[in-house]
Automatic annotation (TrEMBL):
Native organism taxonomy: Eukaryota, Fungi, Dikarya, Ascomycota, Pezizomycotina
GO biological process: L-proline biosynthetic process
Any Pfam family hit: F420_oxidored
GO molecular function: pyrroline-5-carboxylate reductase activity
Stretches assigned to the Pyrroline-5-carboxylate reductase catalytic N-terminal domain: 6-92
Keywords: NADP, Oxidoreductase
Protein known as: Pyrroline-5-carboxylate reductase dimerization-domain-containing protein
Source species: Microdochium bolleyi
Domain of life per record: Eukaryota
Signal peptide bounds: none
InterPro entries in alphabetical order: 6-PGluconate_DH-like_C_sf, NAD(P)-bd_dom_sf, P5C_Rdtase_cat_N, P5CR-like_CS, P5CR_dimer, Pyrroline-COOH_reductase
Residue span, Pyrroline-5-carboxylate reductase dimerisation domain: 180-282
């Protein structure tokens, strides 16, 4: 059996989840290589994955020199901060091009770096490299993630199938999205969703404790209630969320009163606004990532007064009230007025 290689560059929570998923059934279908810059992280990786190549050098010969005839595909997962992605891709390109010994491996690049487009990645990597952008969420660390994938035109169908199989081990829901820009929507909906839920759970558990419930018991009750509610949503696709809500709210009952209280505070609108804010921030991230060291700014509901003459500061976001609709604007302005900086 040919053994593919999987390398995780900047191996953190996401990379560990993938590796753990691959190792969970005891198979050895992938030769593993893991890189990180920090000595403490390298030490932990060596302890946790004794069978893997672990190094601080992305161009380490041990990472790229696969045994002859044993490796037909080299999957490289990039889990670095966006500002380092360009350098990492150039390292990959150089190491892959210079690799010798055995058959040339097919390079496949997976990225979890927000804000770095396929077009930008293609400009840094060898021509024709299959590239898969991913948007997972933190529950992948317990094998319960929700992940969206977008593949570039150079990605053949068999690679797409393999990527889905890899992610299915840590993410019961794996969705291929048809357009790259939808990654930002996925990030704001499912990517941030655990945070929305944790925020809500904080309020519920605090209320439970104020009513005399034990903190540990409250946490367990609320957590299981969330799991059960999610299971109901998954297993009753023919019922709308409104119908499921209605089944919990007896007319005149306590739950109905609770929901009416949430409505009085316009909670649904607040949640939608929060998701939209996350989406806008994700849209801005590409501008910020590509504008590192340049004069590229993101404005949302904020504007610079036409008469602003103050000294400017590069790389900051202007906080100035803007009366128009909350549209996204990427403005190459150059500088931001002093005193109105995020």
């Amino acid at each position: 059996m040919q053994q593919s290689q999987l390398t995780v560059i900047g191996c953190g929570v996401f990379g560990r989840a993938i590796v753990n998923g691959l190792l969970s059934d005891g198979s050895d279908e992938y030769r593993l290589a893991l890189t990180h810059r920090r000595p403490d992280a390298l030490k932990a990786l060596k302890q946790d994955y004794p069978g893997a190549v672990v190094t601080s050098d992305n161009k380490d010969a041990l990472v790229w020199a696969a045994p002859a005839g044993q490796s037909h595909r080299h999957i490289v997962v990039i889990e670095t901060q966006p500002r380092y992605t360009g350098d990492v891709c150039r390292d990959i390109s150089q190491a892959y091009t210079e690799a010798s010994g055995g058959d040339k491996q097919q390079l496949v690049v997976i990225t979890v770096c927000p804000g770095i487009s396929v077009a930008q990645l293609e400009s840094w990597l060898p021509k024709g490299t299959p590239i898969v952008r991913t948007m997972p969420n933190t529950p992948i660390s317990v094998g319960q993630g929700a992940t969206a994938l977008f593949a570039n035109e150079s990605t053949p169908e068999d690679v797409v199938v393999e990527m889905r199989c890899i992610f299915k081990r840590i993410s019961p829901v794996v969705t291929m999205i048809p357009r790259e820009e939808l990654i930002d929507a996925v990030a704001s909906v499912s990517g941030s969703c655990p945070a929305y839920i944790f925020y809500m759970l904080q309020g519920i558990t605090a209320a439970g404790e104020s009513l005399g419930l034990d903190a540990g018991a409250t946490r367990q009750l609320v957590a299981q209630s969330c799991l059960g509610a999610a299971k109901l949503v998954q297993e009753t696709p023919g019922e709308s969320l409104s119908e499921l809500l209605g089944k919990v709210c007896s007319p005149g009952g306590s739950t109905e009163r609770a929901i009416k209280t949430l409505d009085r505070f316009d909670t649904s609108t607040a949640v939608q606004a929060a998701v939209k804010e996350a989406w806008l921030a994700n849209r801005a991230m590409e501008a910020l990532a590509l504008g590192s060291g340049s004069n590229l700014f993101f404005f949302r509901n904020f504007n610079i007064p036409p008469t602003a003459k103050e000294p400017m500061d590069r790389g900051r976001t202007v906080l100035r009230p803007y009366s128009a609709a909350d549209d996204l604007m990427w403005i190459k302005y150059g500088k931001a007025p002093q005193g109105h900086l995020a």
